[in-house]
Amino acid sequence: MHDVIEAGPQQRVRLDVSYDGTDFAGWAVQPQQRTVQGVLEEALATVLRLPQVGLTVAGRTDAGVHARGQVAHLDVPEPIWATTGEQLLRRLAGVLPPDVRITGVRAVPHEFDARFGALWRRYEYLISDAPHGVDPLHRHQVLGWPRRLDTEAMAEAATRLVGLHDFVAFCRRREGATTVRQLQELTVTRSGHDIVCTVVADAFCHSMVRSLVGSLIAVGEGRRPADWPGGLLERDRRADDVTVAGARGLTLVAVGYPPDDELAIRAEETRVKRELPRR
Amino acid sequence: MHDVIEAGPQQRVRLDVSYDGTDFAGWAVQPQQRTVQGVLEEALATVLRLPQVGLTVAGRTDAGVHARGQVAHLDVPEPIWATTGEQLLRRLAGVLPPDVRITGVRAVPHEFDARFGALWRRYEYLISDAPHGVDPLHRHQVLGWPRRLDTEAMAEAATRLVGLHDFVAFCRRREGATTVRQLQELTVTRSGHDIVCTVVADAFCHSMVRSLVGSLIAVGEGRRPADWPGGLLERDRRADDVTVAGARGLTLVAVGYPPDDELAIRAEETRVKRELPRR
Q1: Domains of chain A by range and CATH?
Q2: What Cα–Cα distance (Å) separates residue B139 from each residue in A150, B122, B170, B235?
Q3: Is B179 on the interface with A (CB under 8 A)?
Q4: Is B66 in Cβ contact with A101 (below 8 Å)?
Q5: Interface pTM (ipTM) of the complex?
Q6: Whole-structure pTM over 0.80, yes or no?
């Protein structure tokens, strides 16, 4: 289903995508569900006049999770790209519903791979602990917390999670998939009642960002000490005592890629299963 | 209906209010309609255990217009205020729907008047002329414009509107009401595809902000020269050739008041009908 039917030379095309995840059952196509992938593939097929298209994405976001820097790619038969390319962005704007936008369209080398070529993904998790609740104009993308959170303790806990670790305690395990990740950044900052958790890693396993944030909230509430989230890295299975923070607070904000001449190397490296270095 | 039934000493209370106007038929109570005033008065009556309360507001926003710095006042019987005051904000947070929040509650002198005491009101009108459309996460509060706007021409046109003028061309006239206003600030700024029109005046007549913005958009599109909006100030009736810009782009962001010891003077001054100075 994800292979383009047309034969002949293809142009690889990168799409930058933003969406409000509220009314989507996540990124990935599911039968009978409104998904970002489903809506985009249908719009692209319409505009490109193809029977179907297949998208590969950087981050398969869950139901309710938002994006303002999602990246996907697809292959477009060269004759179609030659006649449609420049107008694709405006045409898609007219066809797509207002809760999803393609903000960038450009031809990329065939080695570009939105999923395996990504160097890092950056997420932001927004929380408000204002006693009056969440700003109405941002309520679909901010988690409201009814009590004040100790963000200094959360920030301290966050520093202990950064680095190359097995994050199995924070992941929903999939058979045969690694849970070793390079957590490059995890910060907690406050401006008034607005709290931002920024999370950057080479990649994330399922529910990892929201589990990390959930463990930090437990610290912020004073239910757990600041060394608790870091201590979970010693476990060899999912930690059932970590609450997965709600989807609405989470936004995929950016994905990083290497320069074009390093694309092929990067994609191949990523396909090799990540392993903890021996010490 | 706007008079509190209870006799005895009353405490005047200032409320700061934010709302997403999308699902409200504006501020003012109307039969069979969901209005901000209606929802707030019901929540306040519930929490204060009063049969009804009456709110006076700084800016009676239209259907679809948002606020993050709206101000209102009401009078609360002193014994009720004495027992409820400090907890009012949290209790209201639990009772109000998520699209309206009371962000501040405080006792003020009896001379404080949210409507007649205001020195200025500040609105922001947000436009995006991105070819891909409006950011999905901000789509309820930003007007999408499908063609690029010349914001330099808009900014130039805006400067010609600032000052004390009869804005009748930009107003829906009400019998006996003045349309003379002191427009203190009207600026147009761009950051990428995001355009902000900031409008500050002592007060606004009905539809004035959206008519000002509509006239600037006509300039930005090149349909009118930059001196056209300023020229409309010479007219003696509503200009039918000015398009009222859509409600969704407009947010009341702040209202200014004098220090407490000047409150009574200001409210009295405002009640006197504004007149153009003789030249």
Answers
A1: 10-107 (3.30.70.580), 120-258 (3.30.70.660)
A2: 32, 21, 26, 35
A3: no
A4: no
A5: 0.86
A6: yes
